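User:
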Amino acid sequence: MQLPAGTYATTGSLYTNSYRVIFRQGDRTGILLVNGPASPYAGYENNLVSSLSFKDGSASIDATQQVLLINPSPDEVFEPGRTHFALADQPEVVWEQINDTVELSDVMSACLASIDSFSKVLQGRFIQGLAMLKAENTASRINVRSGPGLNYTAQHYGLVGDEVTCLAAAPGEDSSDQLWYQVKFDQGQYSSEAEGWIRGDLIDWL
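Assistant: Predicted structure:
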């Protein structure tokens, strides 16, 4: 069975900036393993790009030789149409597809273009926890909600350019396929100390 392209997360992984990305082109499939810093929002991400091999109905990560179990928990409740997987040596950690959007980096494209197994370790982003609110309309008021989704109440708002500290992250509990961040307005001379959730596309990391 093939793995659909997209981003995959497991319980609590997004709180430490850890996730997996499956990317595909033709009959080639690769995986990006992103592990966030040991201290959430403080340090560099560790990234590994690897090709995947499929044989006798199973998949394995070429870089680590770990076997993937695709849809290993059919009795658990997952979002309809979403795939999940686990490593054979870590079956209790289930990675569930949270979206189907993939932006190929140069290294990911090189992985897909390779005719042999591919493996490359990369230093990812530096996560420091500080971000700035952004929007196409610089005069916008950005809703700060009580939870990670449009169905939650907008308790207050921020303005484009406001600096915040990110406390946590979670998949959106709506149909937007967006990651949401819990933020605190504790930066700057006139900070309000207010907290709430803002959609990921309205966050720009500093």
